Amino acid sequence: MAANLEKLVEELSTLSVLEAADLVKALEAKWGVSAAAPVAAAAAAGPAAAAEPVEEKTEFDVVIKDAGPKKIETIKVIRQLTSLGLGEAKTMAETAGGKVLAGVGKEAAMEAKKKLEEAGAVIEIA
User: Fold this and answer.
1) Which residues contact residue 97 at a Cβ distance below 8 angstroms, ignoring those fewer than 6 apart?
2) Would you say residue 41 has pLDDT above 70?
């Protein structure tokens, strides 16, 4: 059994950040759970956590400011980055301040920003 777990860990280690994020979404949907719940519980640890020094921000939101002149390309990229349908992605592209991705790592946020900007969108990392 331990050998199987080690093999699984090795296979998961080869995933890119976006592939890992997609895996998390798929497992959340399949099992009906949220991977964010333990993080929220840890964040509410109490006053002892507040006394620690401020750490560098590790979670970022990718916010769309403007879809740009090539809105169709922007919608396609939004659909690649999220599991949204065509109508929802179109609405997000047309809504300034809409969060394309929320609470992702810096690398994933920068990669998403790059792809969206290549499609012509104006993006902000918050």
Assistant:
1) 63, 64, 65
2) no
CB 66 within 8 A of CB 116: no
- Would you tell me how many other CB atoms lie within 10 Å of the CB of residue 26? 11
Which tokens is 69 given? 């002149």
Q: Is residue 43 part of a domain?
A: yes
Q: Strand 122-125 vs strand 98-104: parallel, antiparallel, or unpaired?
A: unpaired
What pTM was estimated for this model as a whole? Answer: 0.53
Give the contacts of 27 (CB within 8 A, at least 6 positions apart): 33, 35
Query: Do 46 and 92 lie in a common domain?
Result: no
Residue pair 126/33 in contact (Cβ under 8 Å)? The answer is no
